[in-house]
Amino acid sequence: MCNPPLPQAVQPHMTDLPIAYDLPAAQKTWQDHLLLNRFYPPLTQDVPRRSPMRELISTVLSHRTTHADEELAYDRMLEAFGDWAGVLAAPTAELAHAIRTTRWPDTQAPRIQEILRRIQAERGEFSLDFLEEWPTEKGMQWLNDMPGIGLKTASLVLLFNFRKPVLPVDTHVHRIAQRVGLIGPKASADKAHQVLLEQLPKDSLALLNFHKHNYWHGQRVCLYTKPDCAKCPLKGICNYYLEHYGPATAEAIAATPEKWDTAWGALPH
Questions:
Q1: What is the pLDDT of residue 103?
Q2: Does residue 36 sit in the same domain as residue 57?
Q3: Last-in-domain residue among 116, 142, 162
Q4: Is this model's pTM higher than 0.85 or not?
Q5: Which tens digit of pLDDT belongs to each residue from 5-40?
Q6: H-only helix segments in the chain
Q7: What's the CA angle centered on 109, arms 106 and 111, to 5 degrees?
Q8: Residue 101 and residue 146: Cα distance in Å, rounded?
Q9: Are residues 71 and 158 in the same domain?
Q10: Backbone torsion region of residue 104, taken as left when φ is above 0, otherwise alpha when ψ lies between -120 and 50, otherwise beta
Q11: Angle at CA of residue 217, ends 216 and 221, nearest 5°
């Protein structure tokens, strides 16, 4: 097969990209991390992007929902009910109406109230700050016991807010891991949490960058329907590329952009 059309106005900076489709999965995972670290801006953990409680509830709201609609639902919820105590005390139907831009407001409203009820009952306040001192495994188990909280949501809260060495695997990270060959083609997202974490350093900053870079890559390059393989720095190790276009040519490698270009669109949150 031929390589896909090359992107326009690209300088040949990435001539040293690896071409090694038969690397063991763990080595591919590390190569993915190194290559996307070059392609996307590196992140730090100086300040969490959101408070722990907001991270938890916003992630619940985000299920199968765009970021803009999630933010709108969160803002409307707090505008309507003031604080977490107000959200907990609100009539469930009114809460569902406030978060109506989410995918399943009638399901999420009682779920959010039950989460708030448990936190208040167990901790005496609406705070997750205690997770800072808890061992990672204990924090994961406590969060996973909440209704509607799975591995992804628990991992996001622990990694983003408390710098715990965990790896969130959303649909984008999962899709890229399968296409490149970091995990098996039938491995579930839950299984991917375990497999990818075992292949990466137990370092929260490295895990944060792996998650966010693959997340951005899935939203902007490795799309679900029409992946833009021409501009992808993973083409030399990606099983999907090999299957659809054959081994990457020198021309295709040379045409790969060195860095993410904002002309292709701003990066997501």
A1: 87
A2: no
A3: 162
A4: yes
A5: 444 433 335 667 888 999 999 999 999 999 999 999
A6: 25-39, 52-61, 67-81, 84-89, 92-98, 105-123, 136-144, 151-162, 171-180, 189-199, 204-220, 239-245, 250-254
A7: 110
A8: 23
A9: yes
A10: beta
A11: 125
